[in-house]
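Tokens for Heme chaperone HemW. Go.
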Amino acid sequence: MPGTLPAGEPVPVDGTLPDSARVEVGTRGFGVYVHVPFCASRCGYCDFNTYTASELGGGAGRDGYADQVLAELTLAGRVLGDNPPPRVDTVFVGGGTPTLLPADDLARILDGIDRLWGLAGDVEVTTEANPESVTRESLKALRAAGYTRISLGMQSAAAGVLAVLDRRHSAGRATAAAEEAREVGFDHVNLDLIYGTPGESADDFAASLDAVVDAGVDHVSAYALIVEDGTRLAARMRRGELPYPDDDTAADRYLAAEARLSGAGFSWYEVSNWATSAQARCRHNLLYWTGGDWWGLGPGAHSHVGGVRWWNVKHPTTYAARLGAGESPGQGRELLSTADRRVEDVMLRLRLATGLPLAVLDDAGRAGAAEALAAGLLSRSGYAAGRAVLTLRGRLLADAVVRDLLP
């Protein structure tokens, strides 16, 4: 089941933001995230804020959901008022399974964002999708509505691995959907992989990497399996039905991904993400990683504007009720201090291939960077240029390097 949200301080009923946050909005880019919390079934590893029809019971469902999102968008327009963002650079529709909504609903949401704040001429508009939730016709409708990028949850090309993860699609459906997306005109197509699943062999993962390369996509995300408390997968491991993931195996899989993808013309630009060109990188995620602003719409969605971070109530029924009463769906928020923002900047930028300027570190952090350099975790050429840039070994130990830079 979905995890818990942090506490934070209460969000004002009308969603009001401090003047300092509103003045700063969009100075480092502005995006919109739309959360669609519906899934046809729950995958065994998933603790995202998603709900199946049986979990919702008689509560809020897909019908009318687009209107609820548009109602929150109207509230966002009132909150930002005379300080709207100069433009919307990116839109990302995630979930859940956004493509369980009709394409017309996803089109209406995008149109609402455009009418309120205006989409940049080169806006990136992404939707996530499960491979079995799209058809050539639905993909064509999404492309016509202005969606430029699609991210498909492939996870693996091995049927046995998909079964352990409780995925519903066949082993070949993800790559077929990717090919259909390219054929109907999507500018950019991503395939997601998960590695380190119990029972996955090195050959299984090699076949998955071959499949994504052969599919002709221009972006690949690959993440180590994380076993979250409260999930069906965690329960199976506690009962001894499945072994826990192994860190050494995960490292081997990551090295295999780097070798296969770099050999096929992909370059890493974030620890878990590879693209065939600068244009193929996910600009929405880069906005997160470089301290930009975004408004999150939907149950459980998080937002960040001008140093204020807040999150919405999680359950769709509560979300709908708040909006129906004309109230903000925000559950809690935190005002980030200058120190908080610097720490997050270091944590996130270090994961990027561009790294971060050594100048943002304090004396202890620079000493830690020198030690990481000596240990082969930071690039010597990057260091000479005044930046902390992870080596391949450093990428495997990124969290440890962060601790060195933030002692």
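The radius of gyration is 21 Å.
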